[in-house]
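RETRY 2/3 - previous attempt timed out on the joint model. Re-submitting the same 288-residue input unchanged.
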Amino acid sequence: MRAERGWSQGEVAERLGGVSRQAINAIETGRHDPTLELAFRLAALFDVPLERLFDPELASKGKVPRR
Amino acid sequence: MSESLYSTRLQLVRAGVGAAIGAVAGAGMAMLGRHLGMERHDFGVNLGNLVSVSLMGGGGYLLVLAADRRRLGRMLECDATAPASGYETRQTVLQGIVMILTGVLIAVPTLLGVLASQDAQVRALAVAATAALFMVQTWLNWSLVRGADDFARQMMLQAAGIGSALVNSLLFAWAALDRLGVHLGLRPWDVFVLLFALYVAASVFVGLRARGQCNADPEES
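RETRY 2/3 succeeded.
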């Protein structure tokens, strides 16, 4: 999803503000579950429903359309 | 040469250089310790000085890293070409300052203790200086926690959890042995420094384990 937009982890962190790229990396590699607040901010940034961020099946098959 | 082989060789060269620097620094510290008569001091003072110097060195290293955003970006590992953001730089600088102040705070009671033992007025000043430094360090530490993102907070909680388990276990062992008539002869400063050193070790362990993995598959995100 991030790569589709051509964003680096640092760019995502910068766009969110107040988040380090290590946090983004940890979320991507499954080493960290973000808080609800950060999850909503991520969903808003990528303009997708929240569940699409965390369900790899939905994310890869695109079952849930973008809002 | 393949990239992975080059990377492995680079790591080995870095490890060799690090080992050489460590050996020279260690020998230097041992000489300095002998010169200052540290062998005459007890366990708590020597360990406290070691923790203090390590924290100040680590904090100074972070400040040097943070002076160059590109270098800091590489240290953060991922997207190595991207410089560190303002947020990442600010947090690193704050972390460095907190580490240095913590190192100073641990050194101060030992250093001022020597002076304060002579004179009641100097003792009052030493207590006031220690209290003031403690308040500044606590305030900056709190700023660091408040500004941390939830991943950093998770690491802090993990370190605190491991540290708390170690502290409880050792306090129990110490107190139980004392009740059973086995007196280790440890003083409050010895116990504090030992427990704090364990907390620092737990923080380093959690921090190293949480280091970024740059081969994350972006397709999964």
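Chain B has two domains: 25-147, 149-211. Closing ticket.
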